[in-house]
Amino acid sequence: MKIMKILVINCGSSSLKYQLIESTDGNVLAKGLAERIGINDSMLTHNANGEKIKIKKDMKDHKDAIKLVLDALVNSDYGVIKDMSEIDAVGHRVVHGGESFTSSVLINDEVLKAITDCIELAPLHNPANIEGIKACQQIMPNVPMVAVFDTAFHQTMPDYAYLYPIPYEYYTKYRIRRYGFHGTSHKYVSNRAAEILNKPIEDLKIITCHLGNGSSIAAVKYGKSIDTSMGFTPLEGLAMGTRSGSIDPSIISYLMEKENISAEEVVNILNKKSGVYGISGISSDFRDLEDAAFKNGDERAQLALNVFAYRVKKTIGAYAAAMGGVDVIVFTAGVGENGPEIREFILDGLEFLGFSLDKEKNKVRGKETIISTPNSKVSVMVVPTNEEYMIAKDTEKIVKSIK
Ligand code: ADP
């Protein structure tokens, strides 16, 4: 079987992350990041063959960035392919697919239009994703491209889980409902957990905790997402690095009045100045918070960690209830993979669900590990996420199906 080389692209408003992946085993040939696109001092950092190369060059838009990435990939010194034609397909991460997409799709004009229609639902993300797709189409017109959506995996949520209890017409008129995000990650780690346990995912009730800068939890019942903690936007749910997660909506009008600020300014505070950063007043980075709390005895850092862990704990309990039980709890992303203390803190008191934590095994960082004891009814696991691999796999499957 032919090994496909797939370029995975993740565009932000002024950045572009990429990986060139071999489809057989997920081998990463090269990866990197273009930063400050459209701003001054733009730069590409390219990692390949164990080397890190920094290329400073003006990139006025995403098209310039893609050109620079392709130049780096074919460069005679630090490149990994001889010619652009070796790239068999491109997989694009797209944040919002609305209700139009329940899985990844081959990009054509109709798909691009549907992604464009979702701009109003994700004004900060979808425009950059579209820029990236259009730039690639111009430079590589004959290469098939696939869109992989953050929202798609959660489209299996039942209506009673995704509807907000507000007038129904706001759903039909404005598409206000819960969508959920991090879907590619929740899908990857739940499937991987089933593989590691050597059990069919169709038999398992899995709770996946994606805890990073942005955090969300999903209830994955028999392979399908039936609930997740993020909602209409990635602001709902857990306390995050700088995001508040769920709050009483009346706080918004109250703060507008008290601080004499606009709704937009309040939402900005809820997105950028809240979460563990807002409570601690120190940092949004969990390493800083752990240092402050455990080494310096900082009480507000400790409080921030308590608030964070408490919400994760409550949500795990809620999702066990939603699924009528739980077989597997998975931790992933920056904090979930690398924070033994936080994992222990979250799990403390949840043993009634049917596990006991192996504290030695829980010391693991960033490696696939079962951290519950062997006789636990419920398995608790650390599974590092790999969204790029998942995007490459979906892209390969779709491109092969059309050939
Ligand atoms: P993003 O949502 O930006 O993708 P990540 O999944 O990379 O976020 O997670 C970033 C978070 O992971 C940071 O708060 C960082 O402190 C935390 N993290 C990374 N390494 C460790 C570690 N060794 N111990 C605790 N937290 C860690």
UniProtKB/TrEMBL annotation:
Gene Ontology cellular component annotations, sorted alphabetically: cytoplasm
The subcellular location is: Cytoplasm
Q: Which reaction does it catalyse?
A: acetate + ATP = acetyl phosphate + ADP
Q: What EC number is given for this enzyme?
A: 2.7.2.1
**What InterPro entries has UniProt attached to this entry?**
Ac/propionate_kinase, Aliphatic_acid_kin_short-chain, Aliphatic_acid_kinase_CS, ATPase_NBD
**Gene Ontology molecular functions:** acetate kinase activity; ATP binding; magnesium ion binding
State its cofactor: Mg(2+); Mn(2+)
Keyword annotations: ATP-binding, Cytoplasm, Kinase, Magnesium, Metal-binding, Nucleotide-binding, Transferase
Pfam families, alphabetically? Acetate_kinase
Give the family from UniProt: Belongs to the acetokinase family.
Return the protein name. Acetate kinase
**Gene it is expressed from:** ack
